[in-house]
Each structure stands twice: as C-alpha cells, then as structure tokens.
Write a structure and sequence with these properties.
Order of helices and strands: HEHHE
Strand content: 5-15%
Number of strands: 2
Number of helices: 3
Length: 106
C-alpha cells in the first residue's frame, strides 16, 4: 500500500517537473532585474524551506529503522518542495511580478 502511494507521489512529481517553468514579468523590469529578483527569491525560498524542514527529513543511516523511513523522507521532501515553491511565488508576487504563460496558475 505504501509503495503505491510513493509511486503515485513520484509520478505526480515527474509530471510537474515535465511542465515548462512559468515566466515572470513586471512592467518596466529589464531582463537583468527579472533574473536578479528570481535568483534572490529562489535563495530566500531555499533558506526558508531548509530552516523549516531541516530536522524533519530523516536521512539514510541516521539510526532510524523500518520500511516507513524512506516513505516518510519522501513525503517530507515533497512537502518541503511544495513549501519552497509557495515561498518563491509569494516572494516574486510581493516584488510586483506575475506569472505568464500556459503553466501560470492563480
């Protein structure tokens, strides 16, 4: 049962990764500004995700045993990735940017 759930989660992640990344725009912003803000927001989101999930993600060889450990690690990793993406999107929107393109979601 847990293997099926893990496979579904992995499949969902692969489908999400296959979609092209949305493009961010801001009226009057140059390409260099968009790149700088994108990099700043990515770094901020990564730091926030690491701060929040640093101790929740069991690592192999950490002394934890049992078949649930890898499943738990996968689920925590997925949750951390979702959180990181949300923080990144909020950061960009706070700076006045908006997503454009087919993959942009409100």
């Amino acid at each position: 049962m847990t293997r099926k759930i893990g496979m579904v989660a992995l499949l969902g992640l692969l489908v999400a990764c296959a979609a092209p990344a949305p493009v961010w725009e801001k009226p009057g912003a140059s390409a260099a500004e968009v790149k700088r803000f994108t990099q700043n927001c990515q770094a901020f989101a990564a730091a926030e995700s690491d701060r929040r999930y640093r101790y929740d993600n069991p690592r192999e060889g950490s002394g934890l045993a049992g078949p649930g450990d890898s499943f738990q690690a996968t689920m925590v990793g997925n949750e951390a990735l979702i959180f990181k993406n949300r923080v990144f999107n909020e950061c960009m929107e706070t700076q006045g940017y908006r997503k454009i393109g087919a993959t942009a979601k409100p």
